[in-house]
Amino acid sequence: MLIKEIKELRSTIKSWKREGLSVGFVPTMGALHEGHQSLIKRAVEENDKVVVSVFVNPTQFGPNEDFDSYPRDINKDLEICLSAGANVVFNPEPSEMYYGDKSTSVSVSKLTDVLCGAKRPGHFDGVCLVVSKLLNIVTPDKAYFGEKDAQQVAVIKRMVRDLNIDVEIVACPIIREEDGLAKSSRNTYLSAEERKAALVLSRSLEIAKDTLKNGERDARKIKEFILNELNKEPLAKIDYVEIIDSDSLASVDIIERNILIPIAVFIGKTRLIDNFTFEIYTY
Amino acid sequence: MLIKEIKELRSTIKSWKREGLSVGFVPTMGALHEGHQSLIKRAVEENDKVVVSVFVNPTQFGPNEDFDSYPRDINKDLEICLSAGANVVFNPEPSEMYYGDKSTSVSVSKLTDVLCGAKRPGHFDGVCLVVSKLLNIVTPDKAYFGEKDAQQVAVIKRMVRDLNIDVEIVACPIIREEDGLAKSSRNTYLSAEERKAALVLSRSLEIAKDTLKNGERDARKIKEFILNELNKEPLAKIDYVEIIDSDSLASVDIIERNILIPIAVFIGKTRLIDNFTFEIYTY
Asked: Which pathway does it serve (chains A, B) (predicted)?
């Protein structure tokens, strides 16, 4: 079922809750791919009812970013959601979500000073605002986010903790193409040549992973391996490569605890991100 | 019943909700007086169950304000709440409410640029943070606030609207002492002489009200009447006197719509506030 109004969504969810049913929620910006599908399927497994929101949120795009060109195809998205088992697709207009004189902001500091937060000023304020609104509208038991946006997961978890929002945030693994490229709605921007060049992201992370498995614990050296690999690709322009603590997102010199290695790379004009978490006690 | 932990409060409220009971909520900083009692009684009339929070919220006090000296007497407060018909008093420690590494903020801009927001930097950020947390913990159907803190009511209403928090904000009339002084927990700071001097707040507002009833519509003139009256009192030091639009809190020159006249005055070291709303179509 497609719902466009907050009021109708709320009343649908309230009727579920009166029956004692649990609600899972997958917030998306649409242009759904197998990554989103994996979130929806997991939500369907773990909850009685599942809501997917499809909303290209204007407040999380910078003035020179791709808000206008971001791919939109609600009919295709609706089909993907329903075939994955979602019960409701919430697809509001921007005017349904934001008043002209909106003046409330939700911000997470510190965690957003680095990575995409540093490179995309205001981005996470937009994410926190829309996610807090959506969580208040849907009031889910569990909400599902992809680990591809690792910083987003950390920021949302912090926001939910600090604001006592009564929801469990479930982070789900990155889904990749067969050749290793992390699935992303923005992959559709890539030309054939760029699509090939984009493999440098996952390849450089694989090298880092192998080096870590072989026992290297000097973050500076690991970073050098990644940078070297990325620099071999002429179409790639590095935005950031970091080695950070998984929880605090603080920079790490010697790797002694679980770390996150997130990278952001422009392939032509398209900015792609990828990452992996290295759990120190696993190996 | 006194509850100190979020977990216990949530589970109590969830058991009420499972029975289909409605929940009213009165957030306070304790030091309860007849003003708070009137909120609790109204909540008891309008809801099946009522929660009162008693929490002197550190994040809404400035560094040179009265956080340490703010009156605290949980036993007396508990008695007042229960005798007014409340079911639960939530009295958390600051460490139950705030993590050491808290980094999420909730802000309302514009509405907080004036009045107490301008005079007490950060105050409303603290209010928005604690109220959004408490609303997420209690998930009430209705929450009750006193009109004495008129700007607070406007800010909370805006926050609730902008963040889609599913609660009705109920604003309740100012309760006064017999001689006209608005009830306030901070009245206990006043010496006998100051207590007498404090009457200048309500007296100056009464003069403004009479002038408005007599047809004066020039905000500058009304303001002058108030300032003249306040200036007659040697113990009074004016913090602000404003004539503003009830909704936008924007300054008004010619009074053509509903207005709010809020004042803040130091009596000795104690900062007191008072206000009234003039409804243009009432007279």
From this structure: Cofactor biosynthesis; (R)-pantothenate biosynthesis; (R)-pantothenate from (R)-pantoate and beta-alanine: step 1/1
